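## tool: complex_structure
## caller: assistant
## args:
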Amino acid sequence: MTEEKKLSVVFIGSGNVATHLAGAFSGAGHRVVQIYSRSLQNARLLGEKYGATFTDCVDKIYRDADLYLFAVKDDVLPELIRQMPVTSGVWVHTAGSLPLSLFAERGENYGVFYPLQTFTKGRELNFSEIPIFVEGDSTTTEEKMQAIAQTISDNVNLLSSEKRKYLHLAAVFACNFTNHMYALASEIVENQQIPFEVLQPLIAETASKIMQIAPQDAQTGPAVRLDETVMQNHLKLLTDNCERDIYTLLSQNIHIHARRKE
Amino acid sequence: MTEEKKLSVVFIGSGNVATHLAGAFSGAGHRVVQIYSRSLQNARLLGEKYGATFTDCVDKIYRDADLYLFAVKDDVLPELIRQMPVTSGVWVHTAGSLPLSLFAERGENYGVFYPLQTFTKGRELNFSEIPIFVEGDSTTTEEKMQAIAQTISDNVNLLSSEKRKYLHLAAVFACNFTNHMYALASEIVENQQIPFEVLQPLIAETASKIMQIAPQDAQTGPAVRLDETVMQNHLKLLTDNCERDIYTLLSQNIHIHARRKE
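## result:
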């Protein structure tokens, strides 16, 4: 992380991403000056934490901040950008799947500030290790965004909207789909009165292993060799049709990938 | 872990599980006396590490050890059990998906010793944290197995063959299927010349989060609310039909689970 001019930051949004980013910006010495949220209660909660004002009214958003950080749900972002008053400073959004061009109709000095992490209420994160992907409407904005991002993370990268779409898709696999595998595993054991905790060392090692070995090379289990006996026995234990389909489809795909490697 | 009489142990098998278990047993003060493997070369490699003899001939397996630990591929285990000479001691296998009854035709004093972990060559593991599930043909054997397992792990549980089948199925989801999500994510980013490393903090946090929050409650992303716009855009990026099916099926299933919770 690098030293940089301290900025005044307005947060548009008060959810998990806004909450974590407000903490990171404040921790880096920037001033969180205002929180806007459709929920005044949430805006107040976050605002009071950082000595910032709060509002649920777009018109009351300050005009003179250095940075406006949009961290709201994807589907409300376009309309919110249209409603925003004219301000100084740079506008950036944090959405992995939305393009830079969302801001294009509102002038210049805008960008994307995409932290690649899953943000959960109540979980502390070490922001310095979180990769941040930035993009800007000009080289000047991009350089500014990089410098700002480097005040909170040691892992800052320039990335185009086009490539960011793929990164966001990959994150769905690496995070949401992975978490769903945990959820299904937990249901299977808990239905047998076996506590989910017994799977945690396995989950930790599986995640840890791929820091050292490529996941394609780390694969084990019955699907690699398409072990029909084990697989048929497993399918008999799954009573939900959708889960049986998941089991079959993933096993087949693991096998296809294993054969490609041969 | 508890103190227990030091045992002489014969390993039947020389793969990842045998290798890791030999290390754990030796580390706990037991004597690894012999390694049997169909590959004499592998038997020798492992045997020499622990000052044990090695053989690729079933007839040469010692008859007087305290424990015979079978860690071979599922499909060769039944035949190997039939071929084994009569010995003293306890016979145990380490297969998650195979029943205790495999040993039934060969007399008494047998059990299962199932360490729930993914074992990879060259990765050091802290065995004391690995859950071990034991089962025996009698209360005496079960008590013996528990005492032995407790010399290498702090997390020893009795579990029936019936329930172990479900545990093994859950492990496929929590480990093999999860690893496949990592593999697919890694392909998606690497096809865009983005290094897989950028996903690692996300993967680590996703795995770490569920130690604190149930995976059902930790789920985020477009599938939870079945966000059609994001999902359609993601599907456009996936060129492989099988991967598109996986994306759709998992997204639908995540949504079903999220609605169940409401």
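## assistant note: The CA atoms of residues 187 and 193 of chain B lie 10 Å apart. The mean pLDDT of chain B is 95. Handing back to user.
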